[in-house]
Amino acid sequence: MDIENIKKKISDISDTIIENKEYLTELDRQIGDADHGYNMAKGFTAVKIILEDDFKSVKELINKIAMTLISNVGGASGPLYGSFFMKFAQGLDDSDNINKKQFADAFSKGLDGVIMRGKAQINDKTMVDVLEPVSKALYEDKPYSEIVKLAKEKMEDTKEMKARKGRASYLGDRSIGHIDPGACSSYLMIETLMGDLDG
């Protein structure tokens, strides 16, 4: 995928997050600070603006996205998503395109960045519950349609988990019965990015 197609995908992801601002905020209202949707929409509105710039490489583009999210997304989401994109960029070379193996390698580094920043693991009821299985599926070269389906299942699985990280962890058992907002925003990005790639 070349840099112009990647820009188009990032623009689509931005639109998806902005369109789901109220839904993500409602999810966060149930177990968090009720600001996840607002913060994410603010960050990706800023991302859409930087997409108008010229970039020599995919790495440069993704690094700029990382810094934009860190600067514009409040709460825990800014550092977490910023870390994902920053580490993702570190997994790339200086070319103006990216193949499937490079994507899998970079995604894995992005996941490592989230884990390092948030100290979360599988079953902690966070975005890691979506990102880690997706990373594994990318390495296994699963069809993108299967990966999207897996991401949705893993997002929905967070509903029955007890939160062990973040603001939701203060609720204890009362966090059970609600989808994690970060898992949801991660799924929305993955579905928007990969939903039509097999075609």
UniProtKB/TrEMBL annotation:
Keywords: Glycerol metabolism, Kinase, Transferase
GO BP term (any one): glycerol catabolic process
Top-level EC class: transferase
Pathway field: Polyol metabolism; glycerol degradation
SUPFAM superfamilies per the UniProt record, alphabetical: DhaL-like
EC number: 2.7.1.121
Assembly with partners or alone: Homodimer. The dihydroxyacetone kinase complex is composed of a homodimer of DhaM, a homodimer of DhaK and the subunit DhaL.
Protein name: phosphoenolpyruvate--glycerone phosphotransferase
Organism: Anaerococcus porci
Gene designation: dhaL
